Amino acid sequence: MIREGKFLISRRPYAVDMGSLKIEEREGYKGRAYYSGTVRAVWFRRRDGITMACTGILWDSQDARPADAAAFLTAHTDGRYGGDCKGRWDGTRYWGAQEPDVIERHLDLLRPMLEHFPGVPPGFDGWWRF
Question: Second label for 36, Cα 20 to 30 Å away, from 27, 78, 81, 127?
Answer without folding.
Answer: 127
